[in-house]
Write a structure and sequence with these properties.
Blueprint: E1 4-7, H1 13-23, H2 27-35, H3 41-48, H4 64-77, E2 80-85, H5 89-103, E3 109-112, H6 125-133, E4 136-142, H7 149-157, E5 161-165, E6 179-181, H8 197-211, H9 217-220, H10 223-232, H11 239-254, H12 258-267, H13 275-292, H14 296-302, H15 307-340, H16 343-347, E7 351-354, H17 363-374, E8 378-384, E9 387-393, H18 400-405, E10 413-416, E11 420-425, H19 430-444, E12 453-456, E13 458-459, H20 467-474, E14 488-502, E15 506-512, E16 519-523, E17 539-550, E18 553-565
Parallel strand pairs: 1-12, 2-3, 2-4, 4-5, 5-6, 7-8, 13-14, 16-18
Antiparallel strand pairs: 8-9, 9-11, 10-11, 14-15, 14-17, 15-16, 17-18
Helix pairs in contact: 1-2, 4-8, 5-8, 5-10, 5-14, 8-10, 10-11, 10-13, 12-15, 13-15, 14-15, 15-17
């Protein structure tokens, strides 16, 4: 698929030059800062030097005081406390953080992860019944619960109290829990709205530690787990998330908890993890536990204090991940075949595919792959517990959650974000949903949103890429949503030597400009461009600048996103 090259608006030259002079950096770098809303020396210092003092006061969150008081009462009275979390990366890391922290202060505590297939997403009746039958009087629910109005009412009837820690968008009515911690509540004045579910759990333990005058190290030891949730839940890496990701990566790369260290080992990379490495190497393995078997295995690994036990769990999870990949590839092939064989599906502005035999645990991954291929809002459906369950993914700039709101009359339930969501419906509504979703998407999506873009931050000459430039650029990390790795455009480069095809469909080459050093390049998935690259013929590239480490030798490498021959 051809991608449109879209160059971001360039800030005013006088502003760019002013900030470049104040910071003593290249004007291209000051322009990148201005694009990110960083206009002054002080804002730049805040951005380049994340500090634990930049973490917000947890008691600014609505209901935080109520939550801490209820936990203190439970601990003082020796009540049984259940830590309840979802089965994905955000949910399992949330449980690992909050359970591990409170386990140090209260022995009468257990955790509970619902079965993906028997109980489904979020708070389940089965989980509440288990709590009531086993004497739990307080449940701390993490990464779920904000829409569980009926379930919380049921728990209240049984005398089970709830503290909800969620980051999803609330419905019109909040559950009648003892405390509802969610910065997206309309009445919540917390200054940052985009924490992950694990981030909310982190604020809960931070508040408890402050109130009880515990050392901050008791909380900071969980930074690595929070960084994993921030990376894998695709939340914006700005403001407080940037601080959490920054210190989390530091801990992950120097002193990871035993469970994460084990996962890093089985993934085949043990140091210098970036946000992207977490997403592609750690996240899928944690998710595989719940997709293929039981997400409790992931929690057991993440809370492990024993190297031998962690190794056993890590290897089991790695086996599940290999199995998950098999399901993922098979279902993706089947879905692509289904679309290719249907003129109706090819011509639509949305993709909805259904097969009642598909493995529910991987339909989210399949939805992502179909979105990559056809680049339009996508829903993948399968049969589950007498209903039809679905996973949905969107394209840049299009609000999937709003589109599902437009189909809500056909759904039993749905929830999620702008770019990813889950849904459930009655089997008889599948065809009507396919048509209604297409109708809503067609009416609300723009032509530009249906063309995949490469967002280019700035134009650059290769001679500008020198050591100081690269050193400052590295300080823009950690990269992620709303602070993506900058993409540069360089026109009229020449290939040096002979470009080669590597792997399945990747180009490895070296490029130069007159007067510049030669830069090694890797262009993933662009093998079809190989024949266009001719010696002594200039071409344009857009790319991110990376550090390549090979046998302890560090070099600058250009990760080429697009090639345009002239």
């Amino acid at each position: 698929m051809n991608k449109r090259w879209a160059i971001k608006e360039v800030p005013a030259i006088d502003e760019t030059d002013r900030l470049a002079a104040e910071l003593n950096i290249d004007a291209v770098l000051s322009a990148l800062l201005l694009q990110r809303g960083i206009n002054t020396f002080e804002e730049a210092r805040y951005f380049f030097r994340p500090d634990q003092r930049h973490l917000h006061d947890p008691f600014l969150m609505q209901d935080m005081e109520k939550a801490i008081e209820r936990i203190e009462t439970a601990i003082a009275a020796g009540e049984k406390i259940m830590i309840y979390g979802d089965y994905d990366v955000d949910g399992t890391t949330s449980v690992a953080v909050v359970y591990s922290f409170f386990k140090n202060h209260h022995s009468n505590i257990e955790y509970y992860i619902p079965d993906r297939y028997k109980e489904g997403y979020g708070i389940s009746t089965q989980g509440i019944d288990y709590a009531a039958e086993n004497g739990f009087s307080l449940i701390i629910a993490l990464d779920c619960g904000i829409k569980s109005v009926d379930k919380i009412a049921y728990a209240n009837e049984l005398g089970v109290d709830f503290i909800i820690c969620d980051h999803h968008t609330p419905g019109n009515e909040l559950p009648a829990a003892v405390a509802v911690l969610d910065p997206k509540r309309k009445d919540c004045d917390y200054p940052f709205k985009e924490l992950s579910g694990c981030g909310i759990g982190f604020k809960l333990i931070q508040a408890y530690a402050e109130k009880n005058e515990l050392p901050f190290e008791d909380v900071a030891q969980y930074y690595d787990l929070v960084a994993v949730s921030v990376a894998c839940d695709i939340v914006p890496i700005v403001d407080e998330n940037r601080v959490l990701a920054y210190f989390g990566l530091q801990k992950l790369n120097t002193d990871p908890c035993i469970g994460l260290k084990t996962l890093m080992g089985v993934a085949g990379k043990s140091i210098t993890y970036t946000i992207s490495d977490i997403v592609f190497l750690i996240g899928p393995r944690i998710n595989a536990a719940g997709r293929i078997d039981d997400a409790k295995h992931a929690v057991e690994l993440l809370i492990s204090c024993n190297d031998e036990e962690a190794q056993t769990k890590g290897e089991l999870i790695n086996v599940h991940n290999i199995e998950r990949k098999g399901h993922d590839l098979q279902i993706t092939d089947e879905a692509l075949g289904m679309i290719a064989d249907s003129q109706v599906l090819i011509e639509r502005k949305s993709t909805v595919v259904f097969n009642e035999n598909w493995h529910k645990g991987v339909i989210g991954i399949v939805a992502s792959r179909l979105t990559e291929k056809y680049y339009r809002p996508t829903v993948v459906l399968t049969r589950s517990n007498g209903h039809v369950a679905g996973s949905a993914r969107s394209v840049l700039g299009y609000d999937l959650y709003e589109a599902l709101c437009g189909c809500s009359d056909l759904l039993i339930q749905f929830g999620g974000h702008k770019y990813a969501a889950g849904l459930t419906m009655q089997p008889e509504n599948v065809e009507a949903f396919m048509d209604k979703f297409e109708e809503v998407v067609s009416a609300t999506i723009t032509a530009e949103q249906l063309i995949q873009q490469i967002q280019i931050d700035a134009e650059l000459r290769l001679t500008q890429i020198e050591s100081k430039f690269f050193r400052v650029l590295n300080q823009f990390a950690p990269f992620g949503p709303e602070n993506m790795a900058p993409v540069f455009l360089t026109k009229n480069v020449y290939v040096s030597g002979t470009p080669v095809l590597v792997g399945q469909n990747h180009i490895k080459m070296t490029v130069v400009q007159p007067g510049s050093a030669a830069f090694d390049c890797i262009a993933f998935g662009q093998g079809e461009q190989l024949e266009q690259i001719k010696k002594d013929m200039p071409f344009d590239i857009c790319y991110a600048i990376e550090e390549n480490v090979w046998r302890e030798r560090r070099t600058i490498q250009l990760n080429v996103k697009g090639i345009r021959t002239l």
